[in-house]
Amino acid sequence: LEKKQKISAGSNAAIAKLGETIEWDHSYLTGEGTYCVYRADSPDTLREHGALAGAPIGKITPVTQNLH
Which residues, listed in sequence order, are joined to residue 37 by a DSSP beta bridge? Predict the structure, then answer.
């Protein structure tokens, strides 16, 4: 849990630095890892966020439709 809190703090600092180009929506914690949902202007912004936050970015999957 401490590691996840550290990553969360790094993520918040990265979002503050990147400004309005990225916004965290929510995250899922699973046995295999953490899956995060962001709104960002580009995949490169997500990668920059990960680098600044010290959190590895795996696969980026764009959401094309939201069903309610």
Answer: 26
* Mean pLDDT taken over the chain: 91
What pLDDT does residue 28 have?
Answer: 92
Has this prediction a pTM greater than 0.85? no
Query: Cα separation of 22 and 40, whole Å?
Result: 4
Q: How many CA atoms lie within 13 A of 22 on its CB side?
A: 24
pLDDT tens per residue, range 18-40: 999 999 999 998 999 889 999 99
Place of tokens 């912004």: 45
Burial class (CB within 10 angstroms; exposed 0-12, middle 13-18, buried 19+) of 25: exposed
User: What is the distance between the alpha carbons of residues 18 and 11, in angstroms, rounded to a whole number?
Assistant: 10
